[in-house]
Design brief:
globular; 2 domains; alpha/beta; two-stranded parallel sheet; D-Maltodextrin-Binding Protein, domain 2
Length: 272
Amino acid sequence: MKLKGFVIIALAVSLCFVTSTILAGNIVIKGSTTVLPITQKIAEAYMKQNPDVKISISGGGSGNGIKALIDGSTDIADSSRFIKDKEVKLAVGKRRYPVPFSVAYDCIVPVVHPGNSVMNITMQQLKAIYKGKIKNWKEIGGPDRPVVVISRDTSSGTYEVWTKKVMKKERVFPGALLQASNGSIVQAVSKNKNAIGYIGLGYMSKSVKALMVNRVKGSVETTLNGTFPISRPLFMFTPGWPKDDVLKFINFVIHPEKGQKYVRDAGFVPLY
């Protein structure tokens, strides 16, 4: 069976609930800054119910989380994109067999400074901005000010999805300012009246303004019904079928009446 086929089959069974004998211990989780607030809320609730289990969580991007899974330094890799074939091959080469679990849905929302008069943008305009072709906001009905383009770095799963869905696999132009996390993009855009960036839905705040895309607002409803054009699932990967504490935690995360209620609290879209 091809490696890609293996992970697809694993994804299909990932929502099945399973049981195991649980041993107390520590769980290490690394990866996506998009999935980070979901993981933090669920882990906090889980540790309250299971005080003998300690969960360590860090961000750094989806790519870094999957690297940690490959090199054996994490029990769970958070990722806002699916694992790449080359990453699966590297993992299998080290006798680790990535198993994906869908944990939530998300949409990537373009954001600008609240003082920007632009309300809507098309997918074509987004691509032109991030290719460096649209240089002034007045070209799309905004103020006569230069466009400052802010993007995620290449280790980010959000960047990967943006490249696929918006850029159609073309590269963001070199003049874009790169940020390492959703939070840093929010901060950068909130301080620059000329800026545009993109963030996961759960990072929306009053300090930035969300743009509609093709006249569709990014929301829970438009993510689930597929009308918002920049939507995606979010994942947790384990380096093999989970056991013991990791298994119990994953079951908690995907349970509709347990972990999934904290997904909405974090501003994201639950599975159910």
